[in-house]
Amino acid sequence: MNDFEAGRPVVLRGGTVLPMDERQGEGRRMLPRTDVLVIGDRIAAVGPGLAAPPDAVEIDASGGIVMPGMIDTHRHMWQTALRGYGADWTLTQYFVWFYLEHGKLFRPEDVHAGNTLAAIEALDAGVTTVVDWSHGLQTVDHADAAADALQSVPGRYVLAYGNLQQAPAEWTAAPEFRDFVRRRVTGDDLLGFQLAFDVLGDPAFPEKPAFEAARELGAAVTTHAGVWGATGDDGIKLMYEHGFMTPGTIYVHAASLSADSYHRIAATGGSISVSTESEQSAGQGYPPTWSIRAHGIPVSLSMDTSVWWSGDLFSAMRATLGADRSREHLEAHAKGDTVTHCGLRADQVVEWATRGGARALGRDDLGSLEPGKKADLVLIKNDLSPVSFPLLNPFGHVAFQAQRGDVHTVLVNGRVVKHEHRLLGIDLAAARREVEGTVEYLRSEMGEEAWEQGMNPDIPATKLLDNPYTYTDYRSDSTHRL
Ligand SMILES: [Zn+2]
């Protein structure tokens, strides 16, 4: 018997609830020993000792943390088929590999394979909404494959349509793209739609027709802005001057921008999707939260691509706290000062990973646990883990202690999709077969040498500095082995 058949109410009993509601700003709001009742696709009630309908399924949340499902606002899901391949890449190597050399090898079934695995992986990690920044859609068949994959997995996704093989003005004008929008963008609550393209700063503003298309289609634009050497202040200025900086716009990275660009983003109501791990490794610029906090720009978090990083937001929260604090200390030390109180707190990154994502997507009904909101939620609880107790500071626990293996239960739209650490109704073996097919295909198309070279970029020569001190005997002994 399926305990979690569709439509059956669910009550999570006795967890520490992080509601992430409007009162979050008043302090680190948490509700100990509290129940959450889900009826249909909504949260019906949050409180202690709730009465539940007789047919409700009970989930014991005691000792655990119940929080809103996490929201990732920028993930190139199609690239998940190459998990870990680019671990040692820079952004330049990424551009060469995907844009110039091998991105066009991906067939529709390869996009399907990557998207399916990425969608499953997100649910497993408690990421209930993902913006699929899908710039591998070189034909509409690729786009149909991407959408099919997202609709085959019971999470909430936003297909941000893009095509890195063509200029945005071109693909947004193509009749088959318009036909795709008519066929596939149907108002499905679990599959949103945006346009994804970058603004390169050409004074002729060739991206203008793509913005006009977005406006005509009523779709928000997401754009990599403030990427060192690729997109910068010129692009922001063009968008601003032509009236395309709108409240729904998501600026990804925003890591190499001037204060003037931050002022424009703040004034026009957009938000920034920060991919800290990406900015740290790939080189878009220093992860920007330290800078943008001073501008009051709304923030959401993202992980960018599994070609490098793990598809969960625990890592994103952890990396973001670390990068922000690291910068804060460094800036203070440069002035001879000492930071005695951290500016960025654990509860703030939990807010960015939940409510911040909902705000970026214009979804008031997501990102918090309140009656009437959509029931996208996560129970973090792992009784077998020595890291699960004591649970003293739940926000610190989520940001610095927890990981995907601690995700016990996940609900999306009121449906239980993971319970007792196991995904429900997901065919992982089929997803694995698809991805293996893609890897095999890419490897044989590229040839073994190019495949290996792509994964193992050359290491630049490093020169050991001259050392004015004389080696000790111990070191002298060891030098003959060098
Ligand atoms: Zn990206």
Automatic annotation (TrEMBL):
Superkingdom as given in the UniProt entry: Bacteria
Key words of the record: Hydrolase
Residue intervals of the Amidohydrolase-related domain: 65-417
Keyword Glycosyltransferase: no
PANTHER family attached to this UniProt entry: AMIDOHYDROLASE-RELATED DOMAIN-CONTAINING PROTEIN, AMINOHYDROLASE SSNA-RELATED
Name under which the protein is recorded: Amidohydrolase family protein
Source organism of the structure: Nonomuraea guangzhouensis
